[in-house]
Structures are given as structure tokens and as C-alpha cells.
């Protein structure tokens, strides 16, 4: 299983969402992409965008940085 990490710190919305979608398309089942962002609004934007896809999302926050991991099922 492979995990891509995409640094989106200092990228404003909707750039983290766009990067998430572009990288998600490259994944195969079981792989994941982690978006690293300093914009809390990206968490909800990404959750909303991926809610209808076959993906699981986990979000962790550490000192104002969010790690949004999207795994393709």
C-alpha cells in the first residue's frame, strides 16, 4: 500500500482540494494520499467533495496543521 503526501501549507482554498482530486485519480484500491494544510476549511471541503466517492477520510490536527488522509477503497 502506497501513501502519497502532498504539502499544501500556505496554499489557499480551493488549491488543497484540487490537489487532492488530482492525486486521488492516480491511486489504485488501497492506496492513499495525505494532504497537509494549514487551512482548516480544507478539511470540510475535502470531506464534502469525497463523500460520494468510494473513499475513507481521516483527519488529524497537530499545532494548526491538518493531515487529511484519503484512502481509495
From TrEMBL:
Position of the signal peptide: none
InterPro entries according to UniProt: TusA-like (IPR001455)
Protein family per UniProt: Belongs to the sulfur carrier protein TusA family.
Residue ranges annotated for the UPF0033 domain, each copy included: 5-72
CDD domains referenced in this protein's UniProt entry, alphabetically: SirA_YedF_YeeD
Protein name: Sulfurtransferase TusA family protein
